[in-house]
Amino acid sequence: AKLNYLGVSYGTYIGAIYADLFPDHVGRVVLDSAMDPSKRSGGEIRAEQITFLEGALRQYVEHCQAQDGCPLTGSTDEAVAQLAAFVDGLDKNPLTAPDSDATVNTQDATVIIQRLAVAQPDWEALTAMLTPAMTNRDGTLMVKAKQGSNKSSTMPVEAAAYIANSEIMFAAVICNDDPDTGGTASDWDAQAAAEKKTYPFFGGTSSAMDAYCQGWGHRGKTPPQETRAKGSDPILVVGIKGDIQTLYSWAQSLAGQLDNGHLLTVEGYGHGAFGTNSCASTAITGFLVNGTMPAEGTTCAAESPPAAADPQPAADGGAEG
């Protein structure tokens, strides 16, 4: 028997490991928004995400400073540091809006900026939020963005509880995937400080999962290794260039590792191409249903940006949910 399988995000890790263990049982397998099993799921992938995010933020800052009215001043380094200092101060002095009881703290602002800075179509919206927030401490648009990305108040209790616990559940999975690195608290503090110097906005968190897992006391036994699936049927790997959760470079790496891997590239942003990009969805469906592999080098064009990432004053939406 052969397994036909569509795995998205962490499901790609499961699918890749299965394919490597049982290549003769691989049927039509699609790994969408792929992880790279050769990398440590905790600190290593977070460090790469930080590098990607900080680079995207710097591109946004350079664009912002080329426009009239940008609230960020000085060199690119100075502007990033200025933004980081502003956001870091929001825990003590959160942003507010006149028509809402909601506030925006450091974590809220970081999430909003992360979502918008990586997507060039959203840069103007990000500047529209930051300008009043940084010049007049007017948090109207940032509060709107926070409310747009936090829909738990309208969800069933069971769904809201799942979201509230999802980070803890995922941490348990990561801890049991990765072996202990043997670090200490002083090691992690030093790593965080050095990382923060290089990446002042997003840096300082890559060692957090190692610390969490060591404190919990449950770690995996098998070191990460490349995934070959030697002799398997063709496997379709899908990567989105602007994906901040599973980087496009990981999809490239996995497709290259697999003995019979084929890469489908999707331009644009988001996480999970199936069901969100019509070109990719058609290609994936064609492979799963008919066994038709997209031509080598196929790239799907970007489609509409995330619908909730346009926080204009008259709009109801906010950052991508």
Automatic annotation (TrEMBL):
Residues 298-321 are annotated as: Disordered. One of its GO terms (molecular function) is catalytic activity. Pfam families: Abhydrolase_1, Abhydrolase_4. Residues 301-321 have a biased composition (Low complexity). Residues 2-129 form the AB hydrolase-1 domain. InterPro entries: AB_hydrolase_1, AB_hydrolase_fold, Pept_S33_TAP-like_C. Residues 199-300 form the Peptidase S33 tripeptidyl aminopeptidase-like C-terminal domain. This is TAP-like protein. It comes from Actinomyces johnsonii F0510. The lineage of its organism: Bacteria, Bacillati, Actinomycetota, Actinomycetes, Actinomycetales.
